[in-house]
Backbone:
């Protein structure tokens, strides 16, 4: 991986130097490439760094979700609705035509 990165940096530097000489020689389009090749080198460095260290970041545990007290009843009703839909689906009822259950 290090050799690939070194090759990419050398290629970007060589292309930068080539385009710089062409731009100074009068080719106005080469000025765009003079600034583009260093950006490619920076991107190669970013990708190399991410490939080496991307999986080593410490991840913070997610904060528990809290519900405002005035919405707690709505959340409980929604969760009950989802549970009821899952039961109906497991029982084989069509999803849109759930039969009302008798009171228990």
Residues:
């Amino acid at each position: 991986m290090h050799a690939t990165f070194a090759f990419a940096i050398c290629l970007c530097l060589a292309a930068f130097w080539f385009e710089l000489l062409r731009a100074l020689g009068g080719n106005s389009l080469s000025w765009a490439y003079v600034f583009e090749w260093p950006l490619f080198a920076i991107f190669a460095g970013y990708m190399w760094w991410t490939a080496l260290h991307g999986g080593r970041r410490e991840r913070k545990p997610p904060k528990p979700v809290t519900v405002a007290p005035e919405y707690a009843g709505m959340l409980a009703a929604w969760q009950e609705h989802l549970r009821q839909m899952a039961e109906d689906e497991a029982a084989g009822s069509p999803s849109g035509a759930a039969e009302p259950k008798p009171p228990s």
In short: The radius of gyration is 30 Å. The chain has three helices and no strands. Residues 15 and 62 are 46 Å apart (CA to CA).
